[in-house]
Amino acid sequence: MIRLRPSLLVMILLYLAYDKAEARNFTPASQFEEAFATSLVLSDSNMITFGIADFNPNRYLSKDENNPDNGLGSNDSIQLRNQMTVYSLPYTFELTEDPDSRWSHELTVRASYVNTDIDVEFKDKSSPDSDLDEIFGLYAEYAQNYDFYENWTISVGNAFHLMHYRNTHTYNSDFSQSFAPVLDGLYYNVSSNAFIIEPKITFQYKKETDWGEWRFNNSYHYAYGQGFGGSSDYSSDANPEVWRFVNSIQLRYNMAHWNRLAQVLYLKAKRVDLGGDANEPLGTDFYYEFNIAWLIDTRKWISLVDNVGIGFTFNVGSALRGGSIVLFYDE
Questions:
Q1: Which backbone phi and psi does 17 adopt, to 5 degrees?
Q2: pLDDT single digits (tens) 65-80
Q3: How far is Cα 96 from Cα 88, in angstroms, rounded to an integer?
Q4: Which domains does the chain have, with CATH numbers?
Q5: 19-38 pLDDT per residue, tens
Q6: Residue 145 banded pLDDT, cuts 50, 70, 90
Q7: 3-state secondary structure at position 17
Q8: Which residues contact 29 (CB under 8 A, 6 or more apart)?
Q9: pTM above 0.90, yes or no
Q10: Are 37 and 47 in contact (CB under 8 A)?
Q11: What distance in Å separates the CA atoms of residue 247 and residue 119, rounded to the nearest whole number?
Q12: What 3-state class would DSSP assign to 126?
């Protein structure tokens, strides 16, 4: 019996249940919907953070032998993180010319790439198949900001996503090749596209102090899209949908200058509530993330980037729970 896996971006949840037919009634359209919705969340660094190296915090923190996970990390979640590659390159253009105006507006663009590369195993079989899921994304957002009260800002914006999904599956045994006529073009070796609209509203409180600053951010995003094109006959049946409600607090503590470089200790905690097609893949309807980093101000040398640094991030409560060493920039 083959352990079917509709999409390895969707595999984020189904690593616990390999037979999708037994897990739930899974269609090609729902495969695309979950893949696009999951990629939308993963490519947004404000939602979830990936690093250059992953580790299980429970190896150092947990002493509960009966519950070695505790929501902080597990061998399965770290393996899942290691099977994924996420690249996201955002940049924001400030469009306001009057620095004294309460109104400002900005344009944010982003290119992203998400893939999951795994071996698909079989029961009582020795030769796993190789399977690669890829999603390429382009993103543009226009937002209006208004300072409506002391230290308070409201931001209203609308974003557009253009995504391309592609699955490449290699059958490495006679057993799996016998399924190829049924699976190829349906779940495997298939492609699809999606156009997604994502309005958002954000409230931010920013307070500067003698030691630095702290911020509170409350943001709501809703995304809905339409599938089209690609090699699949089911692309037009896909309507990816995901909503996200994010609350975060961050602290920046000014450290002593080092060789004329301004340094900042950066701390951030956030809770992300989400719904729609991303729930099943991420294995939860909410999770927490905590960041700690050392940042260096780079504006004297690189006008396009405010700062760079290195630190740690910890994801708690999702299928991607665990810790990572992260390179930060423009935080």
A1: -145, 105
A2: 555 556 676 767 777 7
A3: 25
A4: 11-329 (2.40.128)
A5: 433 444 678 999 999 999 99
A6: very high
A7: coil
A8: 227, 234, 237, 238
A9: no
A10: no
A11: 37
A12: coil
